[in-house]
Each structure stands twice: as structure tokens, then as C-alpha cells.
Amino acid sequence: MPGALLGTLLYPLGLDAFVWRYVGLGIDGVMWAARTIGSFPGSTLHLPAFAPWAIVFLSLAVLSSVLWRTAMLRATALPLLGIGLFGAAAGPSFDMAVAPTGDAVAYRAADGKLAVIGRSRNVFPTEQWLRADADGRQATEALTKTGCDKLGCVAALASGQVIALIFDRAAFAEDCTRADIIVTPLFAPMGCAAGTVIDRGKLKQTGALTLSFAKDDLQMRGVRAADEDRPWSPAPKRGWGRSPPPPAAKAEAAQAAGEEPEFTEDNEDSPLE
User: Fold this and answer.
1) Are residues 11 and 128 in the same domain?
2) Of 53, 71, 121, 263, which sits with the fewest C-beta atoms within 10 Å of its C-beta?
3) Exposed, middle or buried: residue 128 (CB in 10 Å: 0-12, 13-18, 19+)?
4) Can you give the pLDDT at residue 217?
5) Mean pLDDT for the stretch of residues 53-61
């Protein structure tokens, strides 16, 4: 900091060159120390995601330990620390995660580790899912194209449930009957027989999703609550029941099923346009 200030003051005079060399040596020393310590065994500890309220109690514990003057008041940091550590250990876990766009899915495979399927590489969301799961692997190690083709991807959870990630409407006819969970960035057909359907309409309401499977229970958590409305992320318009797909999506779904698309004024192309 003093070197940067001195270099700024000498810059208009053209006498700052030696100062920046000095500052550069200091930065090189810091980077060398970081690389050396980072190479030690156990230098990196991956922790699962904390409960949302854990950081609040941990912060209060730090403030209580440094702000109070008497030992008795400082001791109030101990119960706050205990609550915070409990929250850190009791963070939400998940067996499956869905990107907000619906084109990537992370699932817990038979080996207990996360695997990621998707249309593209999806490195950034994969990194976030791995860190939340306390997994130190690189994103490229978790990405897999096994079971994928141009229509979509199929994978199996550790529990044996089948996931189908659909990119093309032609895959709905088959995957809706054999998959337990359907994920798609498209609007799924209303008659899809899969037990759980996560499509464009669903993700528009909830944002990214995580799913946890208990014995006979499915817990689904979204980044946006049902009535949550943020200034930077307005809540979508609410409708009654499941939103029907737009006319273009209906026509494509009917064509994929081998039916004639319904002709309405909404999908009619005007000769004047």
C-alpha cells in the first residue's frame, strides 16, 4: 500500500519506475508463499454448503468475542458459535440439481459422487454444484456425455430412478413413458406420464432447483419462493394451474407425436406481415 501510494505520487514526474519494481517484488513474494502453502497436504479443505442462517450466528460470535470488554460478555460468543457450527454442519444436501435454464442436470450417481449431463460443457454451474457438495474435483471431471445424443440425455440416480434430459420434442413420446424424472428447457406436453416433470414453465416460477430423495418423499427447493418478488428479479406472472405452452410449442409437440397441429388464429401467419 505505501509503495502504491508513492508510485502514484511520482507517476506525473516520471520517477515511479523503481517503485513499481519494488511493489512487484512484494507481490511475487506473496504469490510464492501462497503457492508453497497451497501445495502442502491438507491445505485445501472443501466444506459443504452452510445453512443460510449459519453465517449470521458465526458473525455474531466473532463480534461478541472482540467487541465486549468483560470476559463474561465475551463468553456469549460460545453459544453463538455453537449454533453457527451446527448450522454449518446441517446445511442442505441434494441428490439432484437443475440449472435455471433447464439444459443441465447434476445427479448423484451410484458411486455417491455428482455427475453432470447437459447440452454443452456448463463449467460454471458444475463448479458451483461441486463446491456446494464439498467435492474438490475439477468441473471437467464431473461432466459426462454417457447416455447423451442429439435428442437429450438419460441417466440413473443411485436410487435407481431414471432421469431424462430432453432437448428435442421428438424425445417426449418415449421418455415420458419410461423416465421417472423429466427435465427440459422446453414446455413438456400436458400428458407426460413421468412422476416428476421440470420444464420451462416450472423453472420460470422457481429458478434453479435442487431435489432430495427420502424413503417416500421428494423435497424440491428453488432459489425463488412462490411469492418472492425481488427488484432485480421480478416474480413471473402467476397463473391458475400449469401454464400451457405457446401456440408454436403446441404445433411442434403435435408434429412430433405425428398429429396434425391445431390451426388457430394465434399461429396463423398473416400475408400482410
Assistant:
1) no
2) 71
3) middle
4) 79
5) 92
**How many angstroms separate the CA atoms of 190 and 199, rounded?**
11
* Burial of 149 from C-beta contacts in 10 A (0-12 / 13-18 / 19+): exposed
- Distance from C-alpha of 255 to C-alpha of 240, rounded to nearest angstrom: 27
Q: Is residue 234 part of a domain?
A: no
Q: Which grid cell is 180?
A: 421417472
Asked whether 107 and 163 are in contact (CB, 8 A), the reply is yes
Mean pLDDT of the chain: 82
Domain of 20, in residue numbers: 2-38
- The pLDDT of residue 215: 72
Distance between CA 227 and CA 211 in Å, rounded?
20
Poorest-confidence range of 24-38, 160-174, 201-215?
201-215
Residues 6+ apart with CB under 8 A from 167: 103, 119, 150, 151, 152, 184, 185, 186
The answer on 150 and 106 residing in a single domain is yes
Instruction: Say how many CA atoms lie within 13 Å of 195 toward its Cβ.
Output: 10
d(Cα 107, Cα 72) in Å, to the nearest integer? Answer: 48
**Per-residue pLDDT tens digits for 144-195:** 888 888 999 999 988 888 999 999 999 999 999 999 999 999 999 988 989 8
- Rounding to the nearest 10 degrees, give the CA dihedral for residues 48, 106, 100, 200: -150
Residue 71, judged by CB atoms within 10 A of its CB (0-12, 13-18, 19+), counts as exposed
**Cell representation of residue 32:** 510464492
SS3 125: helix
Mean local confidence (pLDDT), 28-44: 88
